[in-house]
Amino acid sequence: MLFFTDYGNVAKVERCNMDGTNRTRLVTEHMEQPTAVALDLVRKLVYWADAYLDYVDVVDYHGGNRHTIIQGSQVSYIYGLTAFEDFLYLCSRADPSKGTAGTSELLQIHRFNLTAQPKTLTSLGTSRGIRVYHKLAQPKVRSHACETDVYGKPGGCSHICLLSGSYKSRSCRCRTGYSLGADGQSCKKPKNDLFLFYGKGRPGVIRGLDMNIKSSNEHMVPIEDLVNPRAIDYHAESGHIYFADTTSFLIGRQKIDGTGRETILKDDLDNVEGISVDWIGNNLYWTNDGYRKTISVARLEQASQTRKTLLEGDMSHPRAIVVDPLNRAMKPFCLSSSLGLFCSREFTDSFAYVYPHVRPNSWMYWTDWEEDEVNDSIGRIERAWMDGSNRSIFVTSNMLWPNGLTLDHGTSTMYWCDAYYDHIEKIHLNGTGRMVTFCFLSIDFFCFVMTRQDMEAY
């Protein structure tokens, strides 16, 4: 079994099987901040410390026979607890009000003689965790359900074997990026042709999410150790997820299988609020809401050596950006760099050269925030050709904080959300048919995506 403490809306001590099933609350009353837990495996007892109410209590594995081992200022701010033989060992932090915050002491308490005084063994500096190391603390069994089989698999599981209700039963689990087969043992890679991925902060991570919210499949290895990933996009052909970690002032990428993690841009990035991958020309576009207010482009490969600023100035807070390389430009454009020329796309159809006017243009679109709540017509969506020329305002009336642009290429429709008006709008790329599609109360929208699967918005 697995035992753990939790506090917040409801402080509690809980128990579950070691595969996460059969979750049960053991204690919920007279608790405020349970911070440490320890077990007596022989007597099947659960000890825990409450750092707010200053006590150490005990119950059995079913939550019964609760009683207090010790209470008072001697056991205030307990953050580490372990049991061995007749004693409890506690890592106790000094009272911060006494000016000794951060200093920890190691206490020894007799858990059966409740009249015995706790003994201070030593000072531990800033330590918060403690364990007793001894073989008796981890008793062995003759056999268990996760023993390695003749094929070298633990419990017959392809990846991970977890003990279940007892050491005689087990459940198989798969590592991130794989799903469990119908036999309950084998692991397979799910088809990564359709899934959502999202970024969040505190801690900063980018995760994949199955379109079927009832599924627990993770279609990509999480991108971890980030601070504040605000902008994300992908390149399906290479399997890369691209991200802008705004607080770390970098743009990076990682493949959905967890390999190829690298920082591709890190200089002159003040506040990148939007990125967009040109999957045809293999270029990356981004907005930079710094002191210069720019829109830039670089190759997906060797990005730091091929970057170029396309637009600068005449923007307040450039945010989201999307590109539409499917609509061919009136002429192919190339940008110079230290490595030579790189172009937005290759034109193999000579018809596009001879009769360029019959081809629709390849556009990039971006949003620009304003912070004037009096004038509701100064937020805007702009567009330009993907070489930065032919810049123009696309939508400007009745918007203030436009965010989260996305395109439905099948219907030539743009969607965006306004974080001030708390609604989602759409407009055809020819500038007609603007309308509000969703309206919510007290929700701030900062990201948005459209999928053709059942025509759903996220």
Automatic annotation (TrEMBL):
GO cellular component: plasma membrane
InterPro entries registered for this protein in UniProt: 6-blade_b-propeller_TolB-like, Cueball_EGF_LRP_Nidogen, LDLR_classB_rpt
Biological process, per Gene Ontology: canonical Wnt signaling pathway
Keywords in alphabetical order: Lipoprotein, Receptor
Gene Ontology MF terms: Wnt receptor activity; Wnt-protein binding
Mapped LDL-receptor class B repeat ranges: 1-43, 239-281, 282-327, 362-411
Leader sequence residues: none
Pfam families: Ldl_recept_b
Keyword Acetylation assigned: no
PANTHER family: EGF-LIKE DOMAIN-CONTAINING PROTEIN, VITELLOGENIN RECEPTOR-LIKE PROTEIN-RELATED-RELATED
Protein name: Low-density lipoprotein receptor-related protein 1B
Species this protein is from: Merluccius polli (Benguela hake)
